[in-house]
Amino acid sequence: MTRLHRLRAPLALTACAGLLAACSSGGKTSSTTLVYTTVSATNPITAGAPMNPFNASGNYFPGFDTMQLGFDKQNPTNPEDFFPAIAASWTITSSGITVRLQPGAKWSDGTPVTPADVKLSMAIALTQGSATVGAGFLTQGLDIGSVTEVNSSTIQIDQAAGGSNLDFGRLVLGQYIVPAEVYGSLVPSTVWDTITDLTSTDAATANAAVTKLNAIGKIVSSFSPAKDVSAGPFVVARINPGSAELTRNPDFYGVAKIAPSEVILRHYSGNSDIWGYMKSGELDSAPYTSMPTNILDAVEGAGYSRIDTASYVDAAIAFNESDAPYDQTTVRQALAYVIDRQAVTKVGEPVGGTAAADLTGMVEAATKQWLTPAQVSSLNPYAPDQSKAASLLTAAGFTKSGSQWLLPGGTPWKITLQTVSGFSDWNAAATVISSELDAFGIPTQVKLTSDFATYKTDMAAGKYAVGFWLIALGPSASAAYQRLYGQDDGYTANADGTVTHSDGGGNWQHTPTGYTVGGAPIDPGQLTAQLATLSSTAARPVVQQLALATNAQLPVIPIWDYTAVDFTYDKRFTDFPGPSSPDINGLMYDGPGVWMMQGYVKAK
Amino acid sequence: MRTLTRLLPKLAVGLVMIWAVATFTFFLVHALPGSPGDAAYENYILSGMSPEQAQAKVSSIYGFTSHDPLLVQYRGYLWRLLHGDLGQSISYSGVPVTHVLRAAAPWTIFPALAGLVIAFLVGTSFGAVAAVKRSSRWGGLLSMSGSFFAGIPVFVLALVLAFLFHTEWNLLPYGDTSDVTLTPGFNGPYVVSVVQHAILPVATYALLGYGAWLLTMKSSVISVLGDDFILAAELRGLRPRTRMRYVSRNAILPMFTVFALSIGYLLGGSVLVENVFDYPGLGNVLFQAIGARDYPLMSGAFLLITVAIVLANIVADLLYTVIDPRVRR
């Protein structure tokens, strides 16, 4: 009895905990609401952040409560291919874009979406660090010169005088549209005069305009609206520190297509959070998450279906070409023959990666769209072949002492392969690559940098000779090659069509300014800079030249193309987009809000 | 008056310590390699953003990154600090640091305190039992349980609890502070939901502290049991229950100091626990701030932890004089 008396308090606590646990029901749904639960990959909920799309940590959810004129279809050869959103249709010309608004588009407070909202949103876009002076702005920037209301549902948006950015239409369509009623007071009425000053021939006036716009931008991005006013299918009802509740917007122009009455968005801080939610069946769909095969098995076992699409990012091994021997093309080619990309991908990114096949600086899906079949088959696949690697090295003056390769000077060749702590796929892959190089006779040590910010700083300082790097960013060839030869490597495109290069101001790779491909000299920086100003048809031969040059010169060795592996769960909803749905790459990229707008996702 | 004369020097020393730590952490966080933009761009790309969207976000962050010389920034930081302003967060695009910390603080303070109190009550009670019954099976089992929980790394314990109670058995919610569909306020469903969501972090704090409290209390009780005054009490025929009261009161004295200090240290320890449970408290904010190189937010969070530890020290000192009359002499 005495013993029981002493244990009274802990027993009571345990009983309370048990009772509460028993009361818990996980993701619960009332009988009157149809709740769709998911995670926003690009916008995890951030406690304390405002509901503002211009805030870097803002709690806003594109496709649900935050709308653009259109949503990107991720078409590599047609960058202006978008799903309609606030814009029902548009016409793009060399000087600008004419946008026709959705008939009946309204904000969630019942007021119509007007050309004034679009005009203000474009001005705000220019305050978010987009406004600069100089040539880059006119060739690659969001160089808006004017926004004119043609009628109550049509807007004409033109490039600034002298502007020649062929991506202008794409950039405009991708801007967030916010209500003038909410954001209008943050922007002075003279903002368009300031924007006009950006292209002033007087440098002081132009620079003052940038400063003014940036100052407005800071006010806009730190602004915290009292409530969400949405033109999308949903509107935020409540934001918790770890989840957001959005209710269907009855004023949404396409509300008839929207089946869920509510959306719950869960916060996540790492992949394992999403895996946990899926294993317990909480999510109706989940965005791309890098995962090992045992997790994939558990997730599929829980009833999720997998949809694989191109993600337009490659993991690659990059070189600092100012460090010998990596300045020699034959050395990089030899290493490509030693590394078995299939084996590395199997360990590094078994679910969300496909071994890089073409080695063109673009992902395979883009390569196949830009190059002719004959060109694709002419690419060197660098299939694992140690004898080819050995003969390339021998021809370059390398020798072998026992099982160890020596540099032309006779010193042992050792590689330090740099990667980043926490990037589990890169680290696992680095271990396999190091074993393969060790076995070939090049002792390789894998070194981890504590985090990505440090990695990037050290890289720029030239501290690493060989390391992992992301390439082929985005579906457009221009963006992909910018990463290798463009702005990132110190090139600037000028308005007059010329390109200037300053070594040291760019990235860590220090690629040469000229290549010889098929006997003809090319300047990859010049070609890349041109891409931004060329139409899709005119860009094709340039992209082809760059792809062939990259395949031959290998400034990087692409290891795998990331695959976007999304998951859907058909226990509560049906009619999800599937592998055979049109524009599936874009749908998976844009997320469930856009699926619903397109008529997908129905109650089961 | 006597308390005031004892308190004032301690407060003065505390303020100097806060200034010293604030200065040290200010320069420390700025010495971290990388800049806010560097940290962000690739993370945005990896999360699936287009290069244009990622660049726009980085530009927004860049606008809030000070480019003044470090000493000028430091002077500004101290000046703002004197006015109670911790600056603007970089990764939150200019949202005041105090706002971000204020939103996160309750979700660390209450679970950490609840865990600490539960661990203290259960641990010291069981520690006293383990000492008195040290030759019995019960005593041995209690000591073993203390050693077991004291030996588990916080990260492992949190992962095991998350895996079992959320992922495998789906008994407890995870990743938020309450069910978002409930109206916040002092109403039954909301309070129950908050408690449910806090069970896993609270249990982690409690189980972690339990082992240490049990073992410390056990050795303290054993040491007091050997004191002459207990022998004298036993010889004078005092009832075991009365004797135990004397033992406990004397054995628990050092625990109070450790208890007060633990409050401060728990705030620092919340980084790991909250990260595992994705619980949106100060620890999670600090973790994100370090990754994003958000210098003002990092400095603010470190300062908050420093202030908590310094205050806890002062409270522990004062408390000791209250509970142990010998110190007052």
Q: What are the defining features of this structure?
A:
heterodimer, A: 604 residues, alpha+beta, Dipeptide-binding Protein, domain 1, Dipeptide-binding Protein, domain 3, seven-stranded mixed β-sheet, four-stranded mixed β-sheet, 35% helix, globular, disordered N terminus, B: 329 residues, mainly alpha, 79% helix, 0% strand
Secondary-structure class of chain A:
alpha+beta
- Main β-sheet of chain A: number of strands, strand sense, barrel status? 7 strands, mixed
Report the CATH architecture of the domain at 311-562 in chain A.
Roll
Q: Describe the global form of chain B.
A: globular
Number-wise, the strands of chain A total 27
Number of strands of chain B: 0
Strand content of chain A: 15-25%
Average predicted confidence as pLDDT of chain A? 87
Structural class by secondary-structure content of chain B: mainly alpha
CATH topology of the domain at 106-280 in chain B: MetI-like fold
CATH domain topology of the domain at 311-562 in chain A: Dipeptide-binding Protein, domain 3
Task: Pick out the low-confidence regions of chain B.
Answer: none
Strand content of chain B: under 5%
The helix count of chain A comes to 22
Instruction: Tell me which protein chains meet in the greatest interface and how many residues each side has.
Output: A-B, 77 and 78 residues
Give the radius of gyration of chain A: 27 Å
Helix content of chain A: 25-40%
Mean pLDDT of chain B: 86
Output the CATH homologous superfamily of the domain at 311-562 in chain A: Dipeptide-binding Protein, Domain 3
Which series of helices and strands of chain B comes N to C?
Answer: HHHHHHHHHHHHHHH
Low-confidence stretches of chain A: 1-31
Keywords (chain A): Signal
Domain Solute-binding protein family (chain A): 83-487
GO molecular function, one term (chain A): peptide transmembrane transporter activity
Protein name (chain A): Solute-binding protein family 5 domain-containing protein
